[in-house]
Amino acid sequence: MSSPRFLRRALTFALPLLLLFSRPAAAGLMADSTMSDRWKLANGLEVRVRHVPGASGVAIVVAYRAGTSYEPAGREGLAQLLAELQYHSAAGDIPERTREEMGSLRPLGWGVQVNERHATLTEIAAPDRYAGVLHQVATRMKGVQPTAADLKQAADDVRGDLALRHFGRADLGLYYRVRELARGANDEQLLRLSSAAGLKAVTLAEATAALQKLYAPANASLAIAGDLGEVDVRALVEREFGSIPGGTAQPEAAAAMLQPVSRATPFSGLDHTIGCVGVFAPAIEDSLHPAFFLSMVITGPWFTNALGRPNPPLSSRFSYSIYDEADLVRFYPEPRPGETAPGALGSQLAAQLDKLAETTMERDLFETVRRSVAWLLGGDLTKAVKDQMRKQPGALGTLANGMAARALWKGDAFWDEYLLRFQTTNRGHSTFYSWLTDPQHQAALLFTPKP
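RE: above sequence
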């Protein structure tokens, strides 16, 4: 997830939850009349393509194994810094570009996102201009030339983003801090992370060397989704990317170890208590995870409907991103006024899920939900989703981001099997409610008004 400064100028990937998410996307014509293709260049670059006739743009996404898990000890913030430099620095005959300029340079959408595994760079172009944008993406992959001024600007931007993320806005503080606490972070570590203390010692030479190591074709995936017209995309990609030296693929990042925790802490600027319960999901490799994902797709909107939309600063009751954080589901119950015990959040979640467990879901609706979200896993697009992609280019960014993530994380065989399990599971929506309400699977964080 991007920081709020990213969000103000990044793509909007948000779709209604039931539209966010059947067959594996193998090469060829799919049942939804889109065309998919996937291959690997000789230099190691994984390429995924989805031609969506009539789409309002073309999303170009490059993901690199360059997330926070690849940061050396004492270099907090380095992953975000490198992503900023790769995206904004000059390359070849292409000049540097600033955050403030991106709205006019990429009016259909753009974004820089960093999670534990990947740094993901997105640009959306009009269908008649995407070949030129793809050329610029390839030029940056050949190597950017950051300056000392670029390094300072990127470091300042990252410090501002991380400070706002952890201590500047309560909604973002809940979102990010609950994960860090589950990973075992103490207060000192949170302060180091939020201040990007590790960037003080990063030199231009170190940053440049890290970019050359991590931002290479063998360590990347390229996803292109949208109306590609009559262009021979395979030939175009080979021409633009095929001659770039491959570099070395980094090992896949190890899964984070999460542990139960319960914490209450004051937060400046609040006038009422807010809280989050982060629930640890089954391992993505677990054969039941596709059923768990379907359960969450159903439960999230029902949980929101039951409690109603939260008051500011919160804007959601539920959050789950299978590609960014497949191991953590976030629920935002409504704390009682004046609540100071974080354990009460788990009790409130359990009480609400008990009510939802009694709700019967008709089979037709169950299948409709399943079909409407399968496209995020590589399945067919529904008519509603295709219509949205004709109107909202950001929806293409969601599609391409998933394509890039699957290619770089676990790979095609894993996700093809995952999709098949997702399509065939018959487990009910409440199958995992006992798991969700087990305190050993929870990290609870309560923010109280600071006196």
